[in-house]
Structure to design on (504 residues):
DNA sequence: GAAACTATCTTGTATATACAAGATAAACTT
DNA sequence: AAGTTTATCTTGTATATACAAGATAGTTTC
């Protein structure tokens, strides 16, 4: 069956019903929904601007902005005189998916164990708590955890958690690494960023990691948000001999 | 001396003289020039849209597009009802994008220069040439390049290139970093992977990078393919004080 | 048949206009 | 003096209109 343009637009017009978001953003959402649901496949052509104008009842400039921004974001590909097409999904680096070291270790078939060194509940800005230039004056948890792979220390986790969003963080079982699942449950991460550096560990950190003083470490600072609210920040420190980051891009 | 708005716009109007690029792009360029030259400092307020309209003789929507895109790119910060400000310069690299250090440095508004230390054409397996467990028995180029940001060494690039796919690699201008464009031209990368580690540089590498012997470095090993053929492998070494990896996921 | 032209589709840009909404300082009221 | 209103600045969005320019299919011309 050949899908006609009108059938392509079926639910598109319903999905931009009135909501607080601006129109161009709703148009973007509606298009993303079509793509993510699989209804609009990669390389497939999407309706032209004028068709969307007719179907959605908005002006062409509004549709144009939505399509242009999605093109900038790599979701669509446009060619003057030809049309607009769904871009192939970019497989971005596994770096963005290593949120949970326990899962990674399990995936390697090794045994994971976490050791809670310290956890405190305090009232401090996130900025004070971890050097990532963020301002929130909430009650926070500050935890230090050491992760083991087959009883060998592989990572120090210094985590700061927004206690307003995750009030029961300290009641989780740290040894079984329930903390990650708990955080995802109470405040599913919608946005995040990380900073990767090479650093020399302090003497105390060397002791925790059971490494020589001259071994460099990979440090990952990560911040994750849920709907514009900072949920948690983390500083992850791993000795280079036991931890590497691997990423893959392009291809299938 | 207080800088008046009119003096802020002095050369701005001259710099968008007619050229092939669209007007909004020329407005963006002119603003970037002001920022990169240091005339508009970080956190400083820039002229309002209506002021730019008057000064440049273009419509407000065109100025708005230029400012909006620069905001999306993290160059500017806008606040409704208040104004537009120069954002603090970000000194990190985007991890999700393909690495071309020259472009990244240019994007930061800094000057890039590359120095070719050595290039040889030889017959060896890629596996021998760089320790990444890859087998190809082709003729290869092996080059060592040092990249400078504002005359400060920021990265050592040890590159191995498949000479069958890129026969004229050694004829490119290394100082101008034509090599990246050349590789993309002869064998557009369709797939790649990278491995990130923290390492201690050798004495020779410290000398090339002009750093102390105890400074850890971020090492990125990268392999890129074009249609299942290995095009090039690279080992990129950057001192932690001058180079960080940055990644962003989720959100818009 | 081949080349040139044309109509018509597409996206890309530029403009004027309009109103909404956030922020701020001055003016006003109590 | 303290709070309220108002005027006015800012950015944010939505629209209609217009023309430019790339691509393509069909038509005409030679």
């Amino acid at each position: 069956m050949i899908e006609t343009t009108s059938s392509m637009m079926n639910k598109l017009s319903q999905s931009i019903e009135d909501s607080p978001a601006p129109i161009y953003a709703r148009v973007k959402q509606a298009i993303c929904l079509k793509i993510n649901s699989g209804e609009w496949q990669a390389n497939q052509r999407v309706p032209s601007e004028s068709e969307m104008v007719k179907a959605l009842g908005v002006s062409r400039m509004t549709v144009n902005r939505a399509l242009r921004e999605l093109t900038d974001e790599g979701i669509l590909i446009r060619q003057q005189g030809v049309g607009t097409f769904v871009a192939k999904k970019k497989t971005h680096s596994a770096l963005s998916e290593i949120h949970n070291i326990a899962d990674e270790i399990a995936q390697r078939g090794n045994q994971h164990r976490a050791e809670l060194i310290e956890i405190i509940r305090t009232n401090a800005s996130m900025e004070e708590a971890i050097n990532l230039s963020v301002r929130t004056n909430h009650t926070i948890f500050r935890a230090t955890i050491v992760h083991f792979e087959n009883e060998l220390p592989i990572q120090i986790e210094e985590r700061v958690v927004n206690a307003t969003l995750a009030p029961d963080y300290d009641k989780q079982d740290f040894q079984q690494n329930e903390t990650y699942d708990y955080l995802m449950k109470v405040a599913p991460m919608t946005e995040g960023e990380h900073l990767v550096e090479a650093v020399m560990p302090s003497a105390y950190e060397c002791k925790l990691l059971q490494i020589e003083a001259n071994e460099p470490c990979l440090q990952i600072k990560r911040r994750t948000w849920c709907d514009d609210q900072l949920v948690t920040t983390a500083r992850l420190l791993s000795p280079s001999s036991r931890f590497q980051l691997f990423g893959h891009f392009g291809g299938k």
Observations:
- The radius of gyration of chain A is 23 Å.
- Residues 94-239 of chain A form a domain with the Chorismate lyase fold (CATH 3.40.1410.10).
- Chain A is about 25% helix and 30% strand.
- Chain A has two domains: 5-86, 94-239.
